[in-house]
Every structure is written in C-alpha cells, then in structure tokens.
Amino acid sequence: MRTSLPDFLSAYKKLLIAVQPFAKKDDLLALKKMYKSFYPALEEKDMALIAKNLRIATISVQEVGLGRSAVIGILLFSHVVEEKLSLEDVEKLFKKDISIIIKGLIQVADLYKKTPSLDSENFRSLLLTFAEDVRVIFIMLAERLYIMRRLKGYTEEERQNIARETSFLYAPMAHRLGLYSIKTELEDLSLKYTNAETYKEI
User: Which residues contact 177 (CB under 8 A, 6 or more apart)?
Assistant: First the structure.
C-alpha cells in the first residue's frame, strides 16, 4: 500500500509519543543510524514498509501493552529477514531478548510460507514456536489488528482468507491472552468481510 510523506511522519510521531515512558536516547540514536545506512535514499516503497512497522509498534505499545524490546524487535525484524542485519548484530547492539523476539517472528513467517492454510495441526505448531517468548504472540496480534483495520485495500479473495483466519485463529488467541477489546474488534472486522449483511444488522 502506498504511503505519503505526511502519513509516514505521522506514524513516526505517534510511535515517539507511545514510547516516551520507556524510550532510551541510545536506542533512538542507534535505530536512526541503522535506518540511515539501510535507506540512504528513502523511496516510497521503503516509506510504506517503515510506516507499517511504526504503526504495528504503536499498536503493540498502546493497545497490547508491550515495551522497549518488542518495539525494537518489530522495527528491525524485516531488516534481519532482508539480511541487512544479523541476529548477532541485534544482540550486540541491544539485548539478547530482542534477537529472541525477532527469531520467533522469523519462525512464524517461515511457517506461513510452508503452510499458508492454518488447520488445527498447524495451530499447535504455531504455539510451539511461541514457547521461547510469549511476546511473539502479542506482536502477531498487533500486526493482525493493523491488517484488519486496512483490509479494504486487499483483493476480495485476500479479504475473505484473512478475515476467516482472523476469526479462527487470532480472535480466540486474543481472548485467551486477556486482550478482550482486541478480540472483539477482530471478530467484528472479520464478520464485516465474511458476512456483511449480518454485520450491518448488528
């Protein structure tokens, strides 16, 4: 999805406000330095990816209740996947728990590539992936909430698949973790795309 410069700056400012209670100056400087090296000339596609990560990180803090390690993990995850940065680099520059979070997110992404349709067996496999750090689940929920709020921009087939998966997997997961408002929103948004008439009646 396209992102304008004002949208990008808005996402950045919202995250800065969200992380104020726990932000460390050294973290901000290190992240800024990294991003400048990753994107010497910031293009529109780069802004779209960064803005997405900024918004997911903001949801993680404001609506899920995560903190510093999760935010840094979200902001660096895609760059580790693209091999611009290694897990060892992350561990040296920040802390081991951040590299563990990123490793968990990579495992989830790999599982999705192998098994795009999640049945009960894959669901159990997914839970095993989370065993090392439960924050991976919370980040996944933040990302899914971000996607569901922007589902209108996807194709009809994608909307249906994502909405069904959200109803089957993510809403129950949010419920089990006590994120009741997120669970309710995920269910509502799923219903909006899988059964529009019922959604309108409700």
Answer: 137, 138, 141
* Number of CB atoms found within 10 A of residue 24's CB: 12
DSSP-assigned states of every residue in 118-141: --HHHHHHHHHHHTT-THHHHHHH
Residue with tokens 């009741």: 180
- The predicted pLDDT at position 126 comes to 66
Q: How far apart are CA 153 and CA 88, in angstroms?
A: 36
Q: How many CB atoms lie within 10 A of CB 196?
A: 10
Tokens representing 21? 């209670």
In the numeric block, which tokens belong to residue 97?
């728990």
Q: How many CB atoms neighbour CB 101 within 10 A? A: 26
Ranges of residues in the chain whose predicted pLDDT is under 50: none
pTM: 0.91
Distance of CA 198 to the CA centre of its chain: 29
Tell me the one-letter amino acid at 58.
Answer: T
Total Cβ atoms within 10 A of residue 134: 10
Check: CB of residue 111 under 8 Å from CB of residue 33: no
Is residue 70 a contact partner of residue 135, using CB atoms and an 8 Å limit?
Answer: yes
* CA nearest neighbour of 175 among 165, 184, 163, 162: 184
Do residues 59 and 186 lie in contact, with contact meaning Cβ atoms separated by under 8 Å? Answer: no
